[in-house]
Design goal:
The complex is a heterodimer of chains A (472) and B (221). In chain A, 50% of the residues lie in helices and 10% in strands. In chain A, the strands form 2 sheets. Chain A has a 6-stranded parallel β-sheet with strand order 1-10-7-4-2-3, sandwiched between helices. Chain A is α/β, with parallel strands linked by helices and 472 residues long. Chain A has 3 domains: 129 residues, no CATH class; 247 residues, NagB/RpiA/CoA transferase-like (Rossmann fold), CATH 3.40.50.10420; 66 residues, no CATH class. Chain B has a single domain, classed as Rossmann fold (3-Layer(aba) Sandwich), CATH 3.40.50. In chain B, the strands form 3 sheets. A 6-stranded parallel β-sheet of chain B has the order 1-12-7-4-2-3. In chain B, strands 8-5-6-9 form a 4-stranded mixed β-sheet. In chain B, helix 4 crosses helix 5. The chains are: A alpha/beta (472), B alpha/beta (221). Chains A and B meet through helix 2, helix 3, helix 4, helix 8 and helix 10 of A and helix 1, helix 6, helix 7, strand 9 and strand 10 of B. Chain B: It comes from Natronospirillum operosum. Chain B: This is Lactate utilization protein C.
Amino acid sequence: MTAEPTFHTRARASLADPQIRANFRNAMDGLMGKRTAAFEGWELEELRTLGAAVRQRALSQLPDLLEQLEANCERNGIRVHWARDGEEACKVITELCQQHQARHVIKGKSMVSEEMELNHHLAGAGIEALESDLGEYIVQLAEETPSHIIMPAIHKNTGEISDLMHAKTGTEPRRDVPYLTSAARQQLRTKFMQADVGISGVNFAVAATGTLCLVENEGNGRLTTTVPPVHIAVTGIEKVVGGLEDVAPLLALLTRSATGQHITTYFNMISGPRPEGHLDGPREVHLVLVDNGRSEIWQDDELLETLRCIRCGACMNHCPVYTRVGGHAYGTTYPGPIGKILMPHLQGLAQTQDLPSASSLCGACGEVCPVKIPIPQLLVRLRREAVDGDKLNPSVVRGHGVKRRRLEALVWRLWAWGHARPALYRFGLALAQRLRFLQPRRLGAWTRHRTAPVLASDSLHARMARRDGGSS
Amino acid sequence: MSAREQILGRLRQRKAAVPASEQPDFSVLTRRQWSAGERLDLFRQQIESVHGEVMRVPREDWLTPLVGWLQQREISTLLAPRQHEVGQTLRAGWTAATGNKGPELRAYDRPIEAWKPELFSEVDAALTSTLGGIAETGSLVLWPDADQPRLMSLVPPIHIAVLDADRIYSNWLELLREQDWAAGMPANALLISGPSKTADIEQTLAYGVHGPAELLVLVRQ
């Protein structure tokens, strides 16, 4: 064990905090209900199949689509940059900011920028990066990280946010959401006017037209991409789709799965900088395409399905583990079920070994996923990779085998060996039945909240044989 | 080797092709069709459910009800287009309709850099045209241009959009096919569905967090 807190210690701390539990429970219950209501009247299975097919088709043409996206963006006047990892992406963005002598950067919500810790990087170069999404703004004021990919500040209630804004920005300590919201509006409007550069994420990048699509409710994404003289969009390479039509099912699925809305307030499609003669919009638009482990995942047919993700968060909202421990317990950029399959790829299994096991495999995440990512199967796959040893399916994920224990492997080898020899198996079984009074009552973590199962005096085989004999 | 070459190189090196999906079938998106009357009703219902307001107005005289709405709210400045038919009609009939009692008409006639603080703090409302509406989601379609720049529908606290009832489509896919968006996209295209909102503080809805707090749709019939 390292000194760094593990998933288990963090989860235990969250479980012991009634405030966190209540905040998440209320939010997740509400979101599940809203999602169900939003899909009423839809052939949901058919729509999910379409969503999965559209994403899978895009991934099957990934290198071609990326080249097409680049060519069409450049044609539209959007400069395209490539980055092998988060570090390189941060460097590209920092340099772009420096070229424009930028001191103040305003940001729209972007999970990939969290993934590469962009704000930290920019701060190192003396550039202030301010989050403008209300939830992200709150999280930044609190010097925390988002606990949910759609609702970053969901772990806080109104009282906590009111106290925070009072302490950090001097607002009145009122537990009044409209007041707090309008106070944030005033604070951020000044920042929008001063910002030298706006940085946003991308929800879908359309190759055929060179269009960057952004989904949002607040309007901060539109301000970020319109008011400052330079707009830098940053996205993972997997976000590309073929044509505009492909966006239609994904948009229909995304907002309904995420928050139960039929659509968000703004769906913003950007296909170039300010044209000659126009009066607003950025003079320059840049697109930074970030790999950061994605091309690695993409090599494996099964793991690649993770890349279909459209970042709706429905898997979190429906996860019995996430709902109870909250987003921070995972200690990763992407929490919840999708984080459990994505983070091991981005960081390697050595750092994320607890994540694939932090699941009861109940299957809810896979059932609600709008693009049908088989999350439970992928969790099982990663558990196997973490202990290695399947000769037919060699492990490929970085850090595989990190949980392999010699004793455990030996026990299983003996188990397999014994089960392949009937006489030995029967002898072992009889012995275990005779000696069952010796069975320990305590079996580590398993019996902390359960009683240990007791071996039966008789095997199922024997019972069935007796029953068949009696009834004939 | 450049990052571009290395990333594309790695992708091109894949041993076997990625398992392709089944051919996507988009019919699930366009199956629900409504008559013109139903489309208008659904549009209204959807946009009202997200705090938008709909006012049906006669095509020949939509200025009178608009001015009534504005004056009732004591709006003092209104930003409106100059070239678009909507702006021309409005400007031509403005004095008669308002009886010189305001609001004052303004135009977005300078680059944003030249009047940023003014636009951000002195304009009460902005009126724009739309390219159409979407019944299923209660959305307005805007393609901002030199006459109606991007920030018009975003910065002033009230956005008023003019929508012709016969341009309400069932869904977005149908609209983008019929208007042939694939042929060429503008620098910015928008779907707007209600006023700006957030639920980031304990899931409590609040309006006007960054954009307009009010959205009025004038449906011309």
